[in-house]
Design a protein that fits this description.
Layout (H helix, E strand, L loop, with lengths): L1 E3 L20 E4 L6 E4 L9 E6 L6 E6 L7 H7 L5 H10 L8 E2 H8 L3 H9 L12 E2 L13 E3 L6 E3 H11 L20
Length: 194
Amino acid sequence: MATLTAPPTAAFPFTPSKDSSLVMNSAFSPSSSALTLATPSSPLPCITATITASTSSKRKHSSISTAPPTPNYPSLINTSQKITSFERKVYHLLLTIPPGSFTTYALLSTHLKSSPRAVGNALRKNPFAPGVPCHRVIATGNTLGGFKGKISRRSADGVGGVDTLIEKKALLQKEGVRFDGRGRVLGTPFKGFK
């Protein structure tokens, strides 16, 4: 942690350290003439600054979030050279399914005037998952269907592995989707495609 002896100005209540490393947090107290800075051990690729001023004119506080911004998935989909025009349409439709909702391969394929198998193949190749949420697409009858193009995935050494359907279910549950005792998704599939 570095300490500066000069107080910050009211217009700019935080200052980067002398060695140009990034400021993570800073605070100034009128009772002290020093500004304390917390700096990371290495520069971060993305910083989003959020400055919060208190209602008291005597005290200023600011913080900088080091969380990376959410990627612009529509732009990534539109500019990707690795996907087909059909896959592009599928991925854009996936972005219209709200978190906590789900749809079926059949409903997607009907909207796209294609087959459920073609939709499943596009989902299997999704390079933007889970940000472009292929896990929100389930089989007709509210069963999970497939995930990542297979039922289970083996580890690199061929021993053990992770059941991809457990992974799909966990992603859906994290978003608030509920299941019955037999593992079927509860609720009505999303149909509001644009």
